[in-house]
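User: Teach me something about this protein's shape.
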Amino acid sequence: MGLRSFTKVGCFVKDMKIKSLELYLFSQPNKESEIIDFFWGKPSRTQFWKPVIEDVYTLARGCTAALGNFAKATFDIISKTYSYLTPSLWKEVMFTKSPYQEFTDHLHLVKTTPELLCREPRLQL
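Assistant: First, the predicted structure itself:
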């Protein structure tokens, strides 16, 4: 398996014009992993770039490229979290009887006759 390179640095490595590789903390990212594999081999490369806590990102829907968008997305998530009411957040409510429940006994005691229901006088034949 040969080194296929699409950049000038890769061509220099392929032609053996670059014989060593140094990585610094703030180095430019190298897009071609074959260059690193050529100098260090696969096991050391995989051990060198293990994921760390800084590699974990906040997930949000939409574009969060700007700091303002990120702050808005964070605010929306927190406000949606607090929109759910748990029983500990419920207010204590004193329920009162509806008028139907309150006067049911009274309506039951009052006898309604057909004469009281009809306002027009009945004709006697």
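Now, about its shape. The longest helix spans residues 67-81. The chain has a mean pLDDT of 66. If you'd like, I can walk through any region in more detail.
User: That's plenty for now, thanks!
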